[in-house]
Amino acid sequence: QVQLVESGGGLVQAGDSLRLSCQASGRTFNGYATGWFRQAPGKEREFVAAIRWSAGDTYYANSVKGRFIISRDKSRNTLYLQMNKMKPEDTALYSCAVRNDQIRYSSQYYSGANYDYWGRGTQVTVSS
């Protein structure tokens, strides 16, 4: 079992920055995928960013590419999402997720169906 706890959400203004954290516990994982997803009210959950835990390969949604940076600290078992130049459309509940098996194809990073464990999320609100 893997437990995930997100933190760092809050209310910011357009153009501001925010850093989310996701603390993982319960199991040491290596070579697995970890990612951030978000869901706005009335909308479906969407992929934001992912990182291969061991090698550090990163993947981004087009809507956040160039503004958000995903990273991880292996020693702390912590995943991060640095969000810059934020926009009102970034407003959502942000959740981290872990896949506890190897990723075979890069396309698998982009779908929430390929992740096994989820945190409860942290709310991010961007005012205009």
How do the helices and strands line up, and which of them pair or pack?
Elements: E1 3-7, E2 10-13, E3 18-25, E4 33-39, E5 46-52, E6 58-60, E7 68-73, E8 78-83, E9 92-99, E10 117-118, E11 122-127
Parallel strand pairs: 2-11
Antiparallel strand pairs: 1-3, 3-8, 4-5, 4-9, 5-6, 7-8, 9-10, 9-11
Summary?
Helices cover 0% and strands 48% of the residues. The chain is mainly β and 128 residues long.
Can you put this structure into words, describing what you see?
- It is a single chain.
- The chain is mainly β and 128 residues long.
- 0% of the residues lie in helices and 48% in strands.
- Strands 2, 4, 5, 6, 9, 10 and 11 form a seven-stranded mixed sheet that branches.
- The protein starts with a strand and ends with a strand.
- The model has no long low-confidence stretch (mean pLDDT 94).
Question: What descriptors fit this protein?
Answer:
mainly beta, 7-stranded mixed β-sheet, 0% helix, globular
- Distance N to C terminus: 40 Å
Q: Give the overall shape.
A: globular
Q: Structural class per helix/strand content?
A: mainly beta
Rg, Cα atoms, Å: 14 Å
Main sheet summary: 7 strands, mixed
Order of helices and strands: EEEEEEEEEEE
Average the pLDDT over all residues and give the rounded result.
Answer: 94
| Topology, number of strands | 11
Contiguous low-pLDDT stretches (5 residues minimum) are: none
Helix content: under 10%
Query: How many helices in DSSP terms?
Result: 0
* Beta-strand residue fraction: over 45%
